[in-house]
Amino acid sequence: MFNPQNPLIVQSDKTILIEVSNPEYGEARDLIGRFAELVKSPEHIHTYKISNLSLWNAAASGMNAGDIINILERYSKYDIPDNVQTDIADHISRYGRLKIKKENGILMLTSNDSILITEIYNHKRIKPYILKRIDDLNLEIDPSRRGHTKQGLTEIGFPAEDLAGYENGEFLNINLLNISKRNISFKLRDYQIDAVNTFYAGGSVYGGSGVIVLPCGSGKTLIGMEIISKFKTNTLIITPNIIAARQWIAELLDKTNLNKEQIGEYNGELKEIKPITIATYQILTYRPKDAEIFPHFSLFNSRNWGLIIYDEVHLLPAPVFRITAEIQAKRRLGLTATLVREDGCEGDVFSLIGPKKYDSPWKEIEKQGWIAEANCHEIRIPMNDERRLQYALAHDKSKYRLAAENPKKYEIVKKIVAHHRSKKDLILIIGMYIEQLKEISKIFNAPLLTGTTANKKRMEMYEKFKRHEIDLLVVSKIGNFAIDLPDANVMIQVSGTFGSRQEEAQRLGRIMRPKKDNSVAHFYTIVTKDTKDQDFSANRQLFLTEQGYKYEILEEYNYE
Q1: C-beta atoms surrounding 198 within 10 Å
Q2: Which end of the chain has fewer CB atoms surrounding its CB within 10 Å, N or C?
Q3: Quick one: 511 exposed, middle or buried, by C-beta within 10 A (0-12, 13-18, 19+)?
Q4: Which residue stretches of the chain have pLDDT < 70?
Q5: pTM
């Protein structure tokens, strides 16, 4: 087959090249994004990679090898290499060849393949979790090591489908209202209903664990609340910070039949344990100096939870993975805008929280009007000769900071702010270096919010911003998530966490809530050209490029 009009080239190393200028680019990108990961995205040709994990997530969402190969054949210029077709069929078939089931109180690892069971029984990575071999097709595994078993099987390339079921937890009479307590009518959108139903799966063992991936501002909290109401059970919700926790509380009190006495807050300020308890990752991972245990892990056993929700699951700290491996009998829901993890622990999310259950391209939800249209701009600026010399002589570890804190960025920020203030826009300026942010705060006489800013002060400034009493906030990395500022429509990024793709997605997400006047959101990232700042920026943009966002590349910037 040879069709030069098609946008894809599939290569024998399982990489996929896609032509950005091709008329079918957008459609092909959305389809291959279901089973492949974007690796790099220069101007004209983007490169995707088919990995084992991307195939297993595709399998968990209902795709099979035939579906994937048909998509590749439909859009490829050339024949699909035979080895690629074989590898896709082989690796995607591995998901579910082993199943974890519970029969007569015994937790079993089972397969129709007796040779595979023999291989697993004798594998040193899995053997510590096996209690005995029952017969040719079944192994009894230690119930307390259910999560460890799944982790190990994923690592060796045979991820198990967990059908052992879950504890129901203590009953909670919770229902989502049709009219909120603020007297606002609301209902779930079609994609929210699909996400809920996919996770719930009629209450069967085929649901109850996994991750829902949707953009910021698309209503993941509402999805979580509807899932709680489906299971009607005591629920532990873990969030990134106190601000996020209190947003959950406000939504639960407004949109469900629950009252304050049924909702607890567990963090550095309060230690309440109630039928719905909202904790923070920070308090759970607190450990006194030189202590071996995490004292607040006891929260996981403090009530008979029927569901645990991991909000912003891409931020899940390593110690919480450890305890999650030990509570696999609890239903587990991960919510996130991106499954990208810079620490490479996507496999742990897959095996311990569960596979990706639902995902929808950001641009698709934008087309439906549920999130704001967003334009992304990268502005590349030079350094002066003195700073260039400093950069040339600096150690590698210092180069990024020198470039990221380029003083020439202040002039660009002034121009952008002046332009958007003339349009009465609401502006967030975000970065990672506090001294840089202090200088920007001084330039505009604007509030600066950092990790050391008291929660009360943060909430006060957010409320003033919502009421349009102030039109500009300068925020550190605390602005990456859990800021509910629906009218913010401009973000200026002056520095970021190296090449973090998930941070870029989270930051864009801060301005993507739909606007009352249907106005477009603007995301600016200012980088120093020909430096590590520009290199890291290219990597940061990968996830958003995969979602269909294009960055307008500019040298300097003028609004005249």
Answers
A1: 16
A2: C
A3: buried
A4: 1, 482, 557-560
A5: 0.90
